[in-house]
Amino acid sequence: MDRYKHLREWMVETQIIERGIRDKRVIEVMKKVPRHLFVPEDIIDSAYDDRALPIGYGQTISQPYIVALMTELLELKGDEKVLEIGTGSGYQAAILSELAKEVHTIERIEPLATAAKKRFENLGIQNVKVYIKDGTEGIPEEAPFDRIIITAATPDIPEPLIKQLKEEGIIVAPVGERYSQYMLKAIKRDNELERHYLIPVAFVPLIGKYGWKEE
Ligand code: SAM
């Protein structure tokens, strides 16, 4: 068994299953996607560590458990159209690509978006489309979405994203202060969000019209 596959199985056992992730499809895909190909080469040996890692430009690839948790909260069955805000390395989008029909992912930092695109090409991932723009405005021309995931800290769910979510659709996002938030799972019912706040988390800020201002 190759070294990274071994590390990946260990990651899934000790960080994902032991902490309560139960969705079998999520567990399988976390075992499959090569996380080490989504981190900078000089820290490749830390790829399966139990933490977020730097990917340049002051940004991070999220901790494996947080990726698994957010994915599980989306309750994907396989036929969904998903919007992700915050492509970063592309790892979360690669995970989603295995579990949904199509993924539209937005990144505001051009070199990160370009690097993620290249990774998708190299891995033969064809159902992910990358956009370079302010993700807080969503993608009106592709709406509505069955699911929306925001992988950066937001003061609240941006209004355009609520509009672009289908009725009964699910949105998952870290909501709160600039440097400390709670993971929110919300379901859209009668044009309102039914909100469930879960665990405390710490994400890098969502910078944009409906997010935080650049410092
Ligand atoms: N999902 C990523 C992954 O799997 O590597 C991790 C995302 S990282 C924690 C947050 C990302 O959100 C950063 O790459 C950051 O540049 C991006 N971001 C912040 N504000 C944004 C915005 N308004 N629109 C799009 N991307 C944004």
UniProtKB/TrEMBL annotation:
Keyword Transferase appears in the UniProt entry: yes
Name of the molecule in the record: Protein-L-isoaspartate O-methyltransferase
GO biological processes: methylation; protein repair
Keyword field contains S-adenosyl-L-methionine: yes
Subcellular location: Cytoplasm
InterPro entries the record matches: PCMT, SAM-dependent_MTases_sf
Active site: 62
Keywords: Cytoplasm, Methyltransferase, S-adenosyl-L-methionine, Transferase
The reaction(s) this protein catalyses: [protein]-L-isoaspartate + S-adenosyl-L-methionine = [protein]-L-isoaspartate alpha-methyl ester + S-adenosyl-L-homocysteine
Functional summary from the UniProt entry: Catalyzes the methyl esterification of L-isoaspartyl residues in peptides and proteins that result from spontaneous decomposition of normal L-aspartyl and L-asparaginyl residues. It plays a role in the repair and/or degradation of damaged proteins.
The EC number(s) this enzyme carries: 2.1.1.77
Domain of life: Bacteria
Gene behind this protein: pcm
